[in-house]
Amino acid sequence: MFENIGSYGVGSVSRCRGWKTMEKYCMERSQQYFLKHYVKEIGERSTFYRRQNRTLLVNAAAGHPFESDPGAYNQNSIWDSFKNGFDAFYRFSRPHTVIGTALSIVSVSLLSVEKLSDFSPLFITGVLEAVVAALFMNIYIVGLNQLYDIDIDKVNKPYLPLASGEFSVVTGIMIVLSFSIMSFFLGWIVGSWPLFWALFISFVLGTAYSIKLPMLRWKRSAVVAAMCILAVRAVIVQLAFFLHMQTHVYKRPATFSRPLIFATAFMSFFSVVIALFKDIPDIDGDKIYGIQSFTVRLGQKRVFWICISLLLMAYGVAILVGASSGFLWSKSITVLGHTILSLILWNQANSVDLNSKAAITSFYMFIWKAQYNEI
Predict the structure, then answer these.
(1) 295/222 Cα distance (integer angstroms)
(2) Which PANTHER family match (predicted)?
């Protein structure tokens, strides 16, 4: 028994020494293996970073931005924000009204020119003073109307920035106040009484048209609303800005020429048509919020053809006036031009789908373009 135990002990010692030797050998081989691969990995990473740095240097030399540069991302973000803000303000300003106002002022200013020498830096300065001040007031008027029509515009014009939520009410108020102040400040600096009174009357009528106060909010009355638009676009724009050029810029006595009277009468037709037609695509929201426009009272189709009839009458009057002109070139251009315009108008009107809001809105923009042609 003891022999067997002794024999077992000696073999165990021998095997233990063998295991230790094997363990030591395995550890050394493992360390060599990991060290080899670690060095290899470091070499590969070093090569990768050298290549990456070389690529970045080449891009920098070629003027290309680094993909990982946070400044490029910030610049793109700032530029996108600027573009979105400008687009929202562009829609807020109602650009078709801005264009119409600017062209009307330039056109009526040309009626004050009596001789070639009147085209001078003085003329350009006087026109710019009138246009800039009037556009500031125009933005005040259309902006104020949007502030008080947010709920209506969510139905009628959801693309406007206040209705869509792109502008907050506070932002709208700040824009409206800023542009009204700038308009009056410019009018005061210029020192032209016709210009100042044009701005003041436009301010009063534009405010009374939109603001919700007792005896105001005149847009709820179809007749009063039309008269406000007629007074501003047909009378004030024509007469006041003509007097601005005549009396303030050229220092001449106030006189109303035949072309000025005709232009005022002709633009009165267009102003009435615009006042009536603008409510045709807005019938849904106006019905919901109790705006008693002519379209709500008479229906879209009837008001549409009343507008077409008024425009055709205006073109007819222009043709008669042109035919009575003593100048052959003036007679030919006026008669032929308004004949073509009346035919285009009739053709476009007959192709409008009155059940499509998009088609009606498109035709409304066509009327503004027709007014631009007359200006």
Answers:
(1) 9
(2) HOMOGENTISATE PHYTYLTRANSFERASE 1, CHLOROPLASTIC (PTHR43009:SF6), HOMOGENTISATE SOLANESYLTRANSFERASE, CHLOROPLASTIC (PTHR43009)
- Whether residue 329 is contained in a domain is answered as yes
Q: What are the pLDDT digits (tens) for 74-92?
A: 777 888 888 888 999 999 9
8 A C-beta contact, residue 184 and residue 202: no
Beta bridge partners of 292: 221
CA angle 334, 336, 340 (to 5 degrees): 115
| Percentage of residues of the chain with pLDDT beyond 70 | 80
Identify the domain boundary among 33, 62, 91: 62
Q: What DSSP line would sit under 90-130, residue for residue? A: HHHT-HHHHHHHHHHHHHHHHTT--SGGG-SHHHHHHHHHH
Question: Within 13 Å and on the Cβ side, how many CA atoms surround 296?
Answer: 18
Q: What's the start-to-end Cα distance of the chain, in Å?
A: 130
Report if residue 250 sits inside a domain.
no
What is the spatial distance between Cα 112 and Cα 240, in angstroms, rounded to a whole number?
12
Residue 352: which of 318, 303, 293, 284 has the closest Cα? 303
Domain tally, the chain: 2
Which residue, of 9, 31, 62, is where some domain finishes? 62
d(CA 250, CA 349): 43
Quick one: which of 298, 277, 305, 304 has its CA closest to 371? 277
- Residue 333 exposure: Cα atoms within 13 Å on the Cβ side: 7
Residues 6+ apart with CB under 8 A from 240: 194, 195, 197, 198, 201
Burial 26-53 (b: 16+ CB within 10 A, else e): eeeeeeeeeeeeeeeeeeeeeeeeeeee
Q: Give tens-digit pLDDT for 305-344.
A: 999 999 999 899 889 888 887 777 777 888 898 899 999 9
Residue 18 in domain: yes
Range of the domain at 43: 1-62
